[in-house]
Amino acid sequence: MCSNNEESMPSHSFSSFDKRRRLRRSRIRVHRLARRRGEQNVEKDMELQNWKLYFENRTILEENEKLRKKANLLHQENLALLLEFQKKFPHLHRNPPTCAIEG
């Protein structure tokens, strides 16, 4: 009394099981590929954002340098005018400026 497994189970059940299993695997692979592509897009977006921020920072630094030079020139002009004012009116100002004029 040997029972044959092939007779008790229909033949299409194994093939449909294999197909479902393959579909699950391919979805996982596609999902992984999509995730990798998504990660690559994120990396490219981050790199682009970094470049934009780098150039923005560079522009700000250049503008700061220009403003620093302008402030230095204005300070020198202010000191020169103050000295000139003190020469004309020595009795109004007792303490001379402590900063030296840089040429």
Features:
single chain; mainly alpha; 0% strand; rod-shaped
Describe this structure in words.
Helices cover 80% and strands 0% of the residues. The mean pLDDT is 77. By secondary structure, the chain is an all-alpha fold. The protein has 2 helices and no strands. The chain is rod-shaped.
Topology of helices and strands:
Blueprint: H1 5-8, H2 11-88
Quick recap of the structure?
With 103 residues, the chain is an all-alpha fold. Helix content is 80%, strand content 0%.
Major sheet, described briefly?
none
Query: How many distinct helices?
Result: 2
- Unreliable stretches, pLDDT < 50, 5 or more residues? none
Indicate the radius of gyration in whole angstroms.
Answer: 40 Å
Give the tally of β-strands.
0
The whole-number mean of residue pLDDT values reads: 77
Give, in order, the helices and strands.
Answer: HH
The dominant shape is rod-shaped
How does the helix and strand content classify structurally?
Answer: mainly alpha
Query: In whole angstroms, how far apart are the ends?
Result: 115 Å
Helix % is over 70%
**Could you tell me the strand content as a percent range?**
under 5%
